[in-house]
Amino acid sequence: MSDLSESGVVFVFPGQGAQWDGMARELLDTAPAFAAEMDRAAAALDPLTGWSLLDVLRGVPGAPDLDRVDVVQPVLFAMYVSLTALWRSHGVEPSAVIGHSQGEIAAAYVAGALDLPDAARVIAQRSRLLAELAGSGGMGSLVLSAEKAQEYLRRWPGRLTLAAINGPQSVVVSGEVQALNELLVQCFRDDVMARKVKVDYASHSPLMEPLREPILTGLASVSPRSGVVPFYSSTTATLVDTADLDAQYWFDNLRGAVLFEPALRAALAGHRTVIEVSPHPVLLDGIRATIAAAGGTATAVGTLRRGHGGPAQFEESRAEIMAVR
Q: How is residue 6 annotated by DSSP?
């Protein structure tokens, strides 16, 4: 076992995009801590979703597809918390957590703010509501600063919004499909790297307003508590008391911008290691760029990689952080 507590480890949980077919199969068969947490997640999620988490992860014929938002979000939540259990089984404990968009639900559970039934309820009910907005909007990823992106967005007032700040030169925009397409064309003309995100709704924008009352009503029974691990919120960009992570917070998390970069900057003080706890590193470049821009020396690593979901990849990632002790 290896105690990294002296290094100050931040666990980061991304939103969507880290998923891939077969991402859990090897660890389900070879890593007892991972498999046990996945079983617990399945017991909490399956009654709420109406499908089998383990069937999806094992690719059982007839299991629902990861392209569905009401499938991929609960599945990724289960992956994040099970990978956390795997890190912890090797003596790597988080001294702080940050979640990005839906990743905040896993962060809240890992921090001790939500018990597993409540966390499962938040991810299952909210993703099911999101599925009802299919076709209502779109999102795009731009290699720009937040300030420069805002200059672009002024050309489409009320139609596009800054949805996420992932790094010094990495943002996501969200809004109406036609306006998004026009923005992407303009970026191409200006030699700005940009791409459409593979979703057909506009998270972190005013187009989420129809979900306000259903979320506030559906999650009214969620009972957050003060956690045992510091929780840096990418909804507020501050260290928060997790007793405040009620239904209103989980709507704000979906409606407002993801302030990941400022949240990470706040967490970097006193922390020398950042681990993206996911089946594929989707935030790692932005994390490293943020560390560099802040003048820090923290080490940032991923956990698994697309096509490499077994113990060998995990051991490679673990070996990287041993060097910072």
A: G
Task: Please report the DSSP string for 197-256 in residue order.
Answer: -S-SS--SSGGGGGGHHHHHHHTTT------SS-EEETTTTEEE-GGG-SHHHHHHHHHS
What does the pLDDT read at residue 5? Answer: 47
Identical fold, 5-133+207-322 and 138-199: no
Answer whether 10's CB lies under 8 Å from 271's CB: yes
The pLDDT tens digits of the residues spanning 114-133 come to: 999 999 999 999 999 999 99
What stretches in the chain show pLDDT beneath 70? Answer: 1-7, 324-325
Report how far residue 83's alpha carbon sits from residue 153's, in angstroms, rounded to the nearest whole number.
37
All structural domains of the chain with their residue ranges: 5-133+207-322, 138-199
Per-residue model confidence (pLDDT) at position 322: 81
Length of the chain: 325
C-alpha to C-alpha distance for 150 and 39, rounded to whole angstroms: 44
User: 74 and 123 in contact (C-beta within 8 Å)?
Assistant: yes
The answer to whether the CB of 9 falls within 8 A of the CB of 275 is yes
241: left (phi over 0), alpha (psi -120 to 50) or beta: beta
- Kindly report the average pLDDT of the chain as a whole number: 95
pTM above 0.85? yes
Q: Which CATH architecture has domain 5-133+207-322?
A: 3-Layer(aba) Sandwich (3.40)
Helix spans in the chain (H) = 25-30, 32-49, 53-58, 69-89, 103-111, 116-131, 146-153, 177-189, 212-218, 247-255, 260-268, 284-293, 311-322
Which pLDDT score is estimated for 325? 59
Domain 138-199 classified CATH 3.30.980.10? Answer: no
Q: What are phi and psi of 264, to 5 degrees?
A: -65, -40
Cα dihedral sign for 231, 233, 238, 243? negative
* Contact indicator for 286, 167 with CB cutoff of 8 Å: yes
